[in-house]
Amino acid sequence: MEKINKLAGESPLSIAEKEEIMKKEYSPKAHRGGLIFSIIHILIFFLPPLYIMFYFNIPVDWSAVAKGTVAVLGFSAPFWFIEPISYFLVLGVAGTYISFLAGNISNFRLPVSAVAQEVAGVREGSHEGEIVSTLAIVATQIMLTLAALSGAIFVTIVVKFLPKSFLAAFDWLLPSIWGAIVIQFALRKWQYAVVAILFSIYIDVYSPLPIWSHVPIIVFFMAILALKLYSKKIWLIAEKEAAPAAGGAKK
Predict the structure, then answer these.
(1) What is the DSSP secondary structure assignment for residue 109, as one 8-state letter?
(2) Which of 163-172, 198-207, 216-225 has the highest mean pLDDT?
(3) How far is the C-alpha of 155 from the C-alpha of 170, rounded, in Å?
(4) Both 82 and 129 in a single domain?
């Protein structure tokens, strides 16, 4: 019986045509818009403290600012490299810009992007996946605005009446989301999930390495392992297939 590929969201254009469109039309505009809005975002971010400092003529202890900056950078600077590298293939170019400007990446943008590409029938990291991911992430911003408004009303009115045992369940929200993502990708090739989980446990629990290095080590290890196994045609992820439509070809 003839098998039909379920990657229905893939464009009928050739790879060369898609590359041409992405390189000459899409990517330059995505990078230009992303950089412009990133710079605007930075300026807006610093406006409130600068306004307060100059308008009210408040003296600044720059040594304290420097110490605070160094303390924050010691924790956050590694993530400037870890997170973009870890998330890029799923989020795409434009999706990465939007996600890092809007925030809530791991608990909102990334899961939505991954699920949207799965539902649309496109590969993560493909040109089609780039477009689907961007549209999904833009939609999340609209939904998040509405959710934030609803959440503010919920928190101020309802939460104070909820029992503590119920509120404690919210501590497991992010682990639950990540668990769902792990299962979603593990269903494609469970061997990778087993290796990733075991290696993560070893690095996180038994390794003497600093905490900030755990994520990049795990990410690069799994990427190198996947490339090596792919080159040897081991643990290949099979194409999703569906039964042909009625009247389709038979053996």
Answers:
(1) I
(2) 198-207
(3) 12
(4) yes
Given a contact cutoff of 8 angstroms between Cβ atoms, the answer to whether 82 and 23 are in contact is: no
Provide the token pair at 196: 């990733």
Which residue range is the domain that position 199 belongs to?
189-235
CA angle 107-111-112, nearest 5°? Answer: 110
pLDDT, tens digit, 9 for 90 and up, residues 9-61: 677 778 888 888 888 888 899 999 999 999 999 899 889 888 988 888 888 88
Check: CB of residue 137 under 8 Å from CB of residue 96. no
More confident residue, 76 or 92: 92
Read off φ and ψ for residue 187, nearest 5 degrees: -65, -20
pTM: 0.61
Structure tokens at 77: 């600077």
Residues counted in the chain: 251
> Looking at the structure, do residues 184 and 214 belong to the same domain, yes or no?
no
Is 59 strand, coil or helix?
coil
C-alpha span between 135 and 94 (Å, rounded): 9
d(CA 200, CA 194) in angstroms, rounded, equals: 10
- Residue 176 binned pLDDT confidence (cut-offs 50, 70, 90): confident
Q: Clarify whether residues 181 and 195 are in a common domain.
A: no
**177 Cα distance to chain centroid:** 12
> pLDDT class for 158, splitting at 50, 70, 90?
confident
Both 181 and 206 in one domain: the answer is no
Domain count within the chain? 2
State how far the Cα of 227 lies from the Cα of 222, in Å rounded to an integer.
9
Does residue 244 sit within a domain?
no
CA count, 13 A, side-chain hemisphere, 114: 19
First to last CA, the chain: 5
